[in-house]
């Protein structure tokens, strides 16, 4: 069947005809009309955000710097067990191959996580991470989530390799969050 | 001949000398290098222009500066892990890249995407089309000397990126589309925010038109410049707004509807002669048409699942992981190995903001694609620049390049 869009086609306007009079008019008239459009925008007020002082709030789904989680105990001296059991599913899901997990067995004397094993080494190379959030999707225990921090620049590449301690620590509360109603 | 030496040979065949080329004593041709870093090339594109005075006699686009090997990388990843990778090709139309790729894989798997997912996809695709056209309009107007257009366009673009952030968590490269649907349903309040945006967008587009369409400077820059007729464009394989500006109403959303585009009532803006002014008007008119499609998709958004129920393809819902062993096994299997796709190959074309974006996927029965190839419209359209700007002024070369709207991430891949 040949393709015939029929009446769905609409021709766009051609340019106005060339003539010396019309173009003299346009040089003044249309320029003034353009000025009117821009000046009318003045009343709308500025939209600029003064970035380092003011931060753009992010939406709840925003994927920023990762966070590893513990079970809540509510007691600062006795932090809860880590949720991560070192299963490496996040590392398997990562398209950028930037997660490194080395698991070790929990022992009765040295219990780190709730499961049989725990992550002895957990590193994310944030300079390779593409913030796709697949690690968060993959983790069956909600041990890793994407936080809301987006200011992660640093001076050396090696500082961007985040270790387990850095990921477990509460990030400095820096990024404001938008409510769903905004 | 090896690929490298072939490349070297071609590079050496480019004559960079400004020696007169048999032009007698009063005339000589000047070879001018533009780019790779030049604001007017809209990316990392290098042009070698041969000029006679102010007139362009020939240009050679030299590409490859942002070659990333994404197609090859995708072969090393399981199917779902390739989605965020292919999204990064044409960085202004990431939803389209993901759509073409997911569409191809879905065709190979033979799965039917639920209607709600199709509508959600359309909302995001059309928002993405507006966003891409806004970047094009802003930067092109900047090339032509209209500074304020750039701010206005980026203001609206910001609103769209906020919407993307709200629904998918990221402003660019969102990996929102997954094989079989979309990864999450839209959050509460998203529909209202989209509605607010599409209520505002037509009046914004009117303002752009007020500023530009009859402006004498813009008219004299765009009117009747760099015309290329329909047959030549077809010969070069050009698609999208460039072809439509020459009067050919070829739009894959109508010609071969995918993802239920046939449910919507929209029109195809076409130009008449195919000069730069038509190219500008066609894209500008598409802003309105996309708004209309989003409005219809929002009104008719069906209820239902946002991704296929097939546990062999789509991840089980999160709450099931704690209660159902079977779901946990499926989850484990999908995350580590991914799903297998039966042997076969598929080409899935869609209409991106720049033309026909096709994704070719060949599956060999394993969990990784054997080949992923993108037919990127910028790459094909860029070739038509040389015939367009032949015997035009060098200032028109800049305007034409802006109207061709190549995205170099897509050209080089
Ligand atoms: S966000 Fe994506 S790229 Fe980054 S660590 Fe997680 S899975 Fe890897
Ligand atoms: S973060 Fe989650 S997925 Fe990654 S190793 Fe720990 S438990 Fe497994």
What attributes does this structure have?
heterodimer; A: 182 residues; alpha+beta; Alpha-Beta Plaits; three-stranded antiparallel sheet; two-stranded antiparallel ribbon; 6 strands; B: 413 residues; Cytochrome-c3 Hydrogenase, chain B; 18 helices; 9 strands; globular; binds iron/sulfur cluster
**What is the ordering of alpha helices and beta strands of chain B?**
HEEEHHHHHEEHHHHHEHHHEEEHHHH
Q: Name the assembly state.
A: heterodimer
- Main sheet of chain B: which strands, in order across? 1-2-3
CATH topology of the domain at 66-168 in chain A: Alpha-Beta Plaits
Largest interface, C-beta closer than 8 angstroms, per-chain residues: A-B, 45 and 60 residues
CATH architecture of the domain at 70-309 and 338-384 in chain B: Orthogonal Bundle
* SSE class of chain A: alpha+beta
Task: Give a short synopsis of this structure.
The complex is a heterodimer of chains A (182) and B (413). By secondary structure, chain A is an alpha+beta fold.
Q: Can you characterise this structure?
A:
The complex is a heterodimer of chains A (182) and B (413). By secondary structure, chain A is an alpha+beta fold. Chain A has a domain at 66-168: Alpha-Beta Plaits (2-Layer Sandwich). Helix content of chain A is 20%, strand content 15%. Chain A has helices at 20-40, 89-93, 134-138, 164-168, and strands at residues 9-11, 66-68, 99-105, 117-125, 144-146, 161-162. In chain A, the strands form two sheets. In chain A, strands 3-4-6 form a three-stranded antiparallel β-sheet. A two-stranded antiparallel ribbon of chain A has the order 2-5. The longest helix of chain A is centred in the N-terminal third of the chain and has 21 residues, at 20-40. The two termini of chain A are 48 Å apart. The mean pLDDT of chain A is 81. Chain B is α+β, with helices and mostly antiparallel strands and 413 residues long. Chain B has a domain at 70-309 and 338-384: Cytochrome-c3 Hydrogenase, chain B (Orthogonal Bundle), CATH 1.10.645.10. Chain B contains 18 helices and nine strands. At the A-B interface, β1, α1, α2 and α3 of A face α6, α7, α8, β6 and α12 of B. The complex binds iron/sulfur cluster (2 copies). One iron/sulfur cluster (SF4) binds next to α3 of chain A.
